[in-house]
Specification:
Elements: E1 7-11, H1 15-27, E2 31-35, H2 38-47, E3 52-56, H3 64-73, E4 82-86, H4 91-99, E5 104-107, H5 112-126, E6 135-137, E7 140-143, E8 148-151, E9 154-156, H6 160-171, H7 179-187, H8 196-209, E10 218-221, E11 225-228
């Protein structure tokens, strides 16, 4: 798994549908984690925050509606997009799903092409770099298609790890990332790296961002982690 791949949590209790969905998502280049019920989904979220959740409404143990409600009431997960899947086609059900906090509502049976388009739309909103969009913060601009970073009129030279760190911070300005979260996003869950390594690369990124002048835009939050701005 590449750390740059958007991470999707797929929560579906029907095995055949879960595997078909996972296959299509992985074919699109996404890193997919699977859960067969709501309780397992919340455990996986506690292990690592996904970029997006695809969530079936009707599930044993903990319904999709309840999982969505819990995600949207927690500070660390409220901004994760949730696409709700449901066989309920009545307007009142769609309204209930959206009022619970779901960002989109898709009625079964659905077109796989349409669902993939909706996934891309939600990811474009929260991870524009994953879909080729430029990232900007104050006078810093990152162009993922050309793999270039500029500050004001000066092009900056960044190592690959510092580049991925900057992408992560630029996609969510103001959000505080813990060292463990940065390890997940930048190095990937499958690679063991000491959390102190994050500090080393943040220091290198700071040096790169200020090499032609300008204030250091990275904020250290004592006991919590790092944020841009």
């Amino acid at each position: 798994m590449s750390a740059d791949q958007p991470q999707i949590l797929l929560v579906e209790d029907e095995p055949a549908q879960r595997e078909v969905l996972a296959y299509n998502l992985e074919s699109e280049g996404y890193d997919v984690r699977r859960a067969e019920n709501g309780e397992e989904a919340m455990l996986l979220v506690a292990e690592a925050l996904p970029d997006l959740v695809i969530l079936d409404w009707m599930m044993p143990l903990l319904s999709g509606i309840e999982v969505c409600r819990q995600l949207k009431t927690r500070e660390d997960t409220r901004n994760i997009p949730v696409i709700m899947l449901s066989a309920r086609s009545e307007e009142v059900d769609a309204v209930r799903g959206l009022e619970t906090g779901a960002d989109d509502y898709v009625v079964k049976p659905y077109s796989m092409r349409e669902l993939m388009a909706r996934v891309r739309t939600q990811l474009r909103r929260i991870r524009p770099a994953a879909t080729g969009g430029q990232l900007c913060y104050q006078d810093i601009t990152l162009d993922p298609e050309r793999h270039r970073v500029n500050r004001a009129t000066q092009e900056l030279k960044l190592g690959p790890t510092e580049y991925r760190l900057l992408v992560t911070l630029l996609e969510r300005p103001g959000r505080v990332f813990s060292r463990d979260q940065l390890l997940d996003h930048v190095w990937g869950r499958d690679i063991f790296v000491d959390t102190r390594t994050v500090d080393v690369h943040i220091a290198r990124l700071r040096k790169a961002l200020t090499q032609h002048g300008g204030d250091d835009p990275i904020r250290t939050v004592r006991g919590a982690g790092y944020a841009l701005g």
